[in-house]
Design a protein that fits this description.
Shape: globular
Oligomer: single chain
Number of strands: 12
Strand content: 5-15%
Strand order of the largest sheet: 3-2-1-4-11
Largest sheet: 5 strands, mixed
Helix content: 40-55%
Number of domains: 4
CATH class of the largest domain: Alpha Beta
């Protein structure tokens, strides 16, 4: 069995060389070839590669075509019986990995796609241990993301919903019979789409934990730029499948699906600290995990955990402050806690993306106690955003036409951070950023974040133009196909806007719309909807209906304080 290792390359020579060195070092099976396709990088490296890595064949695109077209070209040049699509920013660390892959394909003819275990190189935590379709939110997600590498559930071979394109292996004949990766995608979700098509044809999608790699993850910044368009394409193609009864992988592994999914949302998809919570509070069964939420108010859970771990564990305390900063920045009225956690992150002598975000957040609020140099930031893109804020305020920012991809990646992250801070920034200062964003709207590829930004401006009723911002958000929403999670979020945003305007009739219509899309197993979202519907009915003097809705809310979340207060008043 001959293997073709196909590596798309763009502007990351040191990562590519490390990847190729790891292949040479860890590959004991010798019937393989390496195909490198350069996606029009600024610097041509063909001579260096051919000199150092004699087995590698090098091809170059005339223009930047994106991941899909680049790997499809590589597949056409390949001669192996099995294709292995490998990101340039990976490093193989398991010796004999190609023998393991050969055995996996040989063991069952229905093994259609095989992937391995991907780790974060700095922490050793799980980056990929199989891809699943989240049964609550109907979107792809990585199973056990950021779990410890030794966690039992990530060390068993299993069938999954999809395999990440960072390490994606498939027999040549099967690949071409499926038409390869769909060209409707640029640099995201093409792996999910092909996996689902192969699965639909009756083949198994296999996660093999014995193939282990480091993944330095999106060093080009490209995937973030094209994620929105790819998400829309994926949901347009697969919405009917996503709305079927999906497999609950965490339940299969002996956990409460509701507990894990809710904690993943609160903990920013960080399973490592969920393991700590399970161990600390001895939540060893699904029943104990569900009971934990019944005893704790979900809205104040992070406050409780920060207090609990204050003198116990500085690592989790740091992370908890990040989760609280992120959560409270979504709320209009929780300024104090949000700022307290951001200050904690910025002042802790820790150089990571969490601290980077906090420094920019405080700068946007003009609460930073000191200025920072490039050395104070873990990631270069955060330092660029930090300086971008200064340039926008002075009206001196100019885009560099030589690097349009980096510009888009920079603006995508900038918009996310400005959206997080938009409820708390002084309005006169916020107007400077609003003008910049609206003026350069076409450069912001992440339309879902752009919509969130517009809804926040609507809720602040900036310059009395709240409704115009809301209408602009609606115009963008109508142009695309959205996953169920986003449909719920947009309906909630519309409802919240009208509720603040005391237009309870319109608010009720949007909350009802959200109710149609919300997944019935997501009890906390359901409870929130019943509460707001009850509030609308209360102000519309429909007391009987309001009582019923508040009771429904309390059945799902008994600790919902406001619902209980209003029920007593009624």
């Amino acid at each position: 069995m001959k293997f073709s290792i196909i590596i798309p390359y763009y502007n990351g020579q040191k990562y590519l060389e490390k990847c190729l060195e790891s292949i040479e070092r860890c590959t004991l099976y010798h019937d393989y070839e390496i195909i490198i396709v350069d996606d029009a990088s600024p610097k041509i490296i063909s001579k260096v590669i051919k000199k150092r890595f004699s087995r590698a064949k090098y091809f170059r695109n005339k223009r930047n075509n994106g991941f899909v077209k680049t790997v499809m070209r590589g597949a056409k040049e390949a001669s192996g019986e099995v294709f292995i699509f490998l990101n340039m920013d990976t490093e193989i660390i398991s010796s004999g990995w190609l023998y393991t892959l050969k055995e996996t394909f040989s063991s069952n003819q229905k093994n259609g796609i095989v992937g391995g275990k991907l780790l974060f190189p700095d922490s050793g935590l799980i980056q990929f241990a199989g891809g699943i379709i989240n049964p609550r939110e109907n979107r792809p997600e990585h199973l056990y993301y950021k779990a410890p590498y030794y966690f039992p559930a990530v060390n068993k071979m299993r069938t999954v919903d999809y395999i990440t394109g960072a390490f994606f292996s498939i027999p040549r004949n099967l690949f071409w019979s499926m038409g390869g990766f769909s060209r409707e995608y640029h640099s995201a979700n093409e792996d999910v789409d092909l996996s689902l098509r192969v699965k639909q044809r009756g083949y198994r999608i296999i996660y093999n934990p014995n193939i282990i790699l480091y993944h330095y993850e999106t060093v080009t910044g490209i995937s973030n730029v094209y994620a929105f368009a790819s998400n829309c394409t994926l949901h347009k193609r697969w919405s009917s499948y996503f709305n079927t009864r999906l497999k609950e992988y965490y339940t299969e592994d002996g956990y409460s699906e509701e507990f894990i999914q809710t904690m993943m949302r609160i903990f920013c998809n960080d399973f490592y600290n969920i393991v700590k919570i399970i161990d600390e509070f001895k939540l060893n069964t699904p029943q104990l995990q569900n009971d934990f939420f019944k005893r704790k108010n979900i809205d104040t859970l992070l406050d409780f955990l920060i207090q609990h771990f204050y003198d116990k564990d500085t690592k989790i305390l740091y992370d908890l402050h990040y989760y609280r900063y992120r959560k409270e920045s979504q709320e209009k009225d929780n300024k104090t806690k949000c700022i307290q956690s951001a200050v904690y992150l910025a002042e802790t002598k820790k150089n990571d993306y969490k601290s980077d975000e906090a420094k920019i957040f405080l700068k946007l609020l003009r609460l930073n106690k000191s200025s920072y140099s490039r050395n104070n930031f873990k990631n270069n893109i955060y330092y660029e955003i930090y300086t971008l804020v200064d340039k926008i305020e002075r009206g001196k920012y100019r885009f560099k036409p030589t690097n349009p991809i980096f510009n888009k990646a920079l603006l995508a992250k900038f918009l996310e951070l400005i959206t997080n801070a938009s409820y708390l920034i002084n309005f006169n200062r916020l107007k400077i950023f609003i003008n910049f964003i609206i003026k350069n709207e076409t450069l912001f590829a992440n339309k879902d974040t752009f919509i969130s930004f517009l809804f926040r401006l609507a809720n602040r009723d900036c310059d009395g133009a709240g409704d115009s911002y809301r209408k602009k958000a609606e115009e963008i929403i109508d142009k695309y196909e959205w996953p169920r999670k986003d449909k719920v979020k947009f309906a909630l945003n519309n409802g919240a806007y009208y509720e603040r305007q005391h237009n309870y009739e319109r608010a009720y219509i949007f909350y009802e719309k959200a109710l149609k899309h919300v997944n019935q197993i997501d009890s906390y979202v359901l409870a929130s909807l019943y509460y707001h519907l009850g509030l609308c009915d209360m102000y519309r003097r429909k007391k009987k209906s309001a009582k019923l809705l508040f009771n429904k809310c309390l059945e799902l979340v008994p600790e919902h304080v406001k619902a209980r207060e209003y029920l007593v008043k009624l």
